[in-house]
Amino acid sequence: MTASAAERPDFAPLEAQLVTACEAGEFSGVLAVARRGEMLFQHVCGQADPVNGVANTPETRFKIFSTSKYLTAIAILRLCENGEMDLDAPISRYLPDAPSSWAGVTVRNLLNHTSGLPDLTEAMLARFSVDHPTAMKAVLNDLPEDETRPLEAPGENFRYNNFGFELLAHAAAATRGEPFDRLLDELVLKPAGMTTASVEAPNLVAGHPVAVQEEGLAIGYNGAPGALSQAENWAFIQLGAGAVRASLADMLALDRALDEGRLLKLESLAKMRAAPVVSRDGKAVVGPRGYGLGVVVSSAAGQAMVGHSGGTNGYIADFEQLPDQDAVLVILTNRGFTRLQPLREQVGRAFTAVSTGGA
Question: Which of 15, 180, 239, 349 has the fewest CB atoms within 10 Å, measured from its CB?
Answer without folding.
Answer: 15
